[in-house]
């Protein structure tokens, strides 16, 4: 019962201004804060009897005891929610190498989880909320960075979203706030990249996890025995699949400049990694832990640069026209609408699309076919970064990449 205006003011101060229900309650109570006490206490004419005071005192003690019990149960529930996320991350193998899940605090017999209203008397007595905060921050720091999504994904040191999240966790004062932070972390994890959902790209089965080799570039899986010939030894260190190798390309002009400056000419590497035979690449994977692109064929005598460039760009226009007519090319015809997808520009730093490439061809902005191929790869790389592999747009991106590689190899066999 509110017996004075001072108590009413204290209640208003304790209510959170951003809470949905509390904000409405503040508006209602604010009407009575400035009212005189005699207006609030108009119904209080007769003095309260001693029996009523004793009854109210007993009810107050019972309600306070019940409140403390419910509060402690909420703290324990928040701790269990955090531990459930911890177990899920560990089972999905989303943690950094070397990190192991800690035993649950709720199952530890040496720990005594006490109410936050009590002061710990020894090291074995801990508040559940304090344990949950510490372990949640520790859990976040041990998640592999590539499995995080915006706004918590790290590109350099730490994103503003991640710093804000860490500060909020450190200042958590209630189980509701902690559960909110747990849910935010859970929603920022790419669960679809979990090893629990990985299937072999060759046989499309998810069995024999011990023989399932994960690519360090795209997190796709391959059974060692599905390669031809099969891979007898699991490679140490980073390993990349044939798709990731095919995405990597080097500028021929830059490589030639480095060769001229150095004076010595080493073994000639391919300027553009475009694989046309999947079996050859899989064979390379079996021979070395980190497969490297095969050397390119020696080029024939060069024609005058202007003639070669014009001829190349005519063929590039043909490739682009074919890609625009392709059934799977519809997501890449125009630039991505920033209003429809507000987060696109935050994730994709260098957007590219077929219409922009057509404009650059029309304005003669491409100096060589290598630059054109680079923009084409940029379109498909952006698609992989922003879209899930199993989505409609993601599948279209993979199909268009294969189609582009095939057409490019057919028209420019010297780069294959």
UniProtKB/TrEMBL annotation:
CDD domains: PHD_BAZ2A_like. It comes from the Eukaryota. This is Bromodomain adjacent to zinc finger domain protein 2B. GO terms for molecular function: zinc ion binding. Belongs to the WAL family. Residues 297-307 have a biased composition (Basic and acidic residues). It comes from Lottia gigantea (Giant owl limpet). Its main location: nucleus. GO terms for cellular component: chromatin; nucleus. Keywords: Bromodomain, Coiled coil, Metal-binding, Nucleus, Transcription, Transcription regulation, Zinc, Zinc-finger.
């Amino acid at each position: 019962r509110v017996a004075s205006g001072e108590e009413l003011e204290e209640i208003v101060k304790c209510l959170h201004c951003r809470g949905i229900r509390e904000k409405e309650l503040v508006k209602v109570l604010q009407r009575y804060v400035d009212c005189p006490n005699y207006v609030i206490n108009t119904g209080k004419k007769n003095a309260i009897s001693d029996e009523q005071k004793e009854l109210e005192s007993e009810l107050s003690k019972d309600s306070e005891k019940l409140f403390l019990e419910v509060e402690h149960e909420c703290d324990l529930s928040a701790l269990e929610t955090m531990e459930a996320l911890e177990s899920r991350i560990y089972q999905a193998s989303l943690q950094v190498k070397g990190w192991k899940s800690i035993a649950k605090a709720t199952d530890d017999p040496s720990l005594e989880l006490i109410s936050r209203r009590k002061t710990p008397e020894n090291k074995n007595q801990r508040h559940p909320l304090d344990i949950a905060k510490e372990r949640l921050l520790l859990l976040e720091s041990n998640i592999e960075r590539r499995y995080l999504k915006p706004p918590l994904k790290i590109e350099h040191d730490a994103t503003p979203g991640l710093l804000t999240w860490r500060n909020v966790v450190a200042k958590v004062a209630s189980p509701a706030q902690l559960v909110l932070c747990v849910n935010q972390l859970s929603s920022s994890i790419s669960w679809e990249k979990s090893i629990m959902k990985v299937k072999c790209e060759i046989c499309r089965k998810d069995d024999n996890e011990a023989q399932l080799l994960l690519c360090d570039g795209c997190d796709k899986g391959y059974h060692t025995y599905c390669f031809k010939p099969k891979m007898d030894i699991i490679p140490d260190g980073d390993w990349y699949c044939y798709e990731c190798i095919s995405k990597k390309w080097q500028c021929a002009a830059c490589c030639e400049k480095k060769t001229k400056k150095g004076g010595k000419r080493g073994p000639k590497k391919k300027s553009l990694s475009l694989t046309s035979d999947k079996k050859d690449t899989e064979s390379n994977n079996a021979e070395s832990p980190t497969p490297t692109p095969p050397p390119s064929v020696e080029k024939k005598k060069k024609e005058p640069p202007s003639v070669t460039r014009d001829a190349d760009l005519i063929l590039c226009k043909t490739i682009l026209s074919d890609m625009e007519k392709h059934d799977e090319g519809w997501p890449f015809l125009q630039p991505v609408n920033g209003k429809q997808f507000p987060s696109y520009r935050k994730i994709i730093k260098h957007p590219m699309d077929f219409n922009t490439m057509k404009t650059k061809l029309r304005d003669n902005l491409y100096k060589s076919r290598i630059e054109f191929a680079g923009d084409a790869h940029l379109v498909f790389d952006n698609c992989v970064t922003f879209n899930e592999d199993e989505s409609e747009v993601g599948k279209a991106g993979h199909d268009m990449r294969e189609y582009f590689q095939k057409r490019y190899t057919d028209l420019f066999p010297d780069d294959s």
